[in-house]
Every structure is written in structure tokens, then in C-alpha cells.
Write a structure and sequence with these properties.
27% of the residues lie in helices and 22% in strands. It contains one helix and nine strands.
Length: 196
């Protein structure tokens, strides 16, 4: 006659497993937090690049000036805000009218807009060249010498400033082409280098 053994885990085995999982989670949590912050920075950089590319493409398509503008929010109280990741692509000045839906006829003739708080509210920008870029019918940025937007996370310090976060920079070439680069990379010939 066969004697059957009980199947499953004892309470001690289960508690040991939970303790080991807790220790592993505590070890991985700081790296996961840094990963999330870096992902938020990357998403904001991609959003800004998408907005700039859209404004440039619309200017080429329409053969008319199109504006890319960083704004404080997407309400009726919006204003130019060089530190805000919210943006509006429009044919006319959207200040004070950012709540208007995208339309070809309704002032300010918004093509597209994006809230800076989608995904995170931790992103802050540092811009040079202002919060407004206007593209002419040839797709060139007019009235701006050099536009550079540094994307940071309020939760920490960038690698190029001695911190752990990988901040990104969006630069605008003289021809109006936006590109994302890494301010920490200084190797000549590296496509991530902001000095190119």
C-alpha cells in the first residue's frame, strides 16, 4: 500500500519565499524608479520632436507660416511658458485660446496640441531661443537663432550635472529640422552628441 504525502507548501516555506521576494524587490526598486524617470524624459523629448516635426510639415504642406508654441496649459488662461512641456501647433497665436479644439476655421486655427502632463507631471524644460518657433512655407525656422530645449525630471539631477538621470535635449537646426541628443555624450562623431 502506497502512502500519499500531502502536496503543497508549508507556511514556513511560503514565508521564506515572500521574504526573498521582498528583499529582491527592495534591491530592484531604486533602479526601477530611475528607469521610470528616464522613460518620462524620453517620452517628453519624443513629444516635443513630434510637435516640431508636425509644425514644420504643416508649414511645408500649406506653404504658409505655422507656429509651434510652448504654453503653460491647454485652457483659456494659457500663456507662453518656456519651462512647460505643453505645446500647441497653430496658424495663429493661441495665447488665451488653447482650449479651442483643432479647427481649420476657428481662431487660432489649432492643428494639434499636447498636454505636458500626459504620462507625468515631473517634466520641466529649459529653453534657449524662446518658447515660440515659427516655420515658414519652406520649412525653415524663422525669427529664431538657435533653439535648444533641455528636458529634465524634477525628481533628480541630470547625468551631465553629476546626477543619475539621463536628460535629453531637443535641438533645432538652421534648416528647421528637430533632433534629440544626449547632453552627456561628448564623443566626436557620435550621433547622440548635441554638438553636431
Amino acid at each position: 500500500m502506497l502512502i500519499s504525502r500531502p502536496r503543497g507548501f508549508t507556511i514556513i516555506e511560503m514565508m521564506m519565499g515572500i521574504a526573498i521576494m521582498g528583499i529582491l524587490l527592495m534591491l530592484a526598486l531604486p533602479n526601477f524608479s530611475l528607469f521610470l524617470q528616464n522613460t518620462q524624459i524620453k517620452n517628453a523629448a519624443e513629444s516635443l520632436t513630434q510637435g516640431l516635426n508636425l509644425a514644420r510639415a504643416e508649414a511645408l504642406r500649406r506653404n504658409a507660416p505655422v507656429r509651434f508654441q510652448l504654453v503653460s496649459n491647454l485652457t483659456a488662461t494659457c500663456a507662453l511658458a518656456a519651462a512647460s512641456p505643453a505645446w500647441v501647433v497653430s496658424l495663429e497665436d493661441p495665447v488665451g485660446k488653447c482650449e479651442v479644439a483643432a479647427s481649420e476655421t476657428t481662431t487660432p486655427k489649432i492643428v494639434q496640441k499636447q498636454s505636458g502632463t500626459e504620462g507625468t507631471g515631473n517634466i520641466v524644460l529649459e529653453t534657449t531661443g524662446g518658447a515660440l518657433v515659427t516655420f515658414n512655407g519652406l520649412g525653415r525656422a524663422t525669427g529664431v537663432s538657435t533653439t535648444s530645449i533641455l528636458i529634465k525630471n524634477t525628481s533628480g539631477t541630470c547625468e551631465h550635472d553629476g546626477g543619475p538621470m539621463r536628460c535629453m535635449r531637443v535641438t533645432l537646426s538652421a534648416g528647421g529640422q528637430p533632433r534629440v541628443c544626449d547632453p552627456k555624450v561628448s564623443t566626436a562623431g557620435d550621433p547622440r552628441n548635441c554638438a553636431l
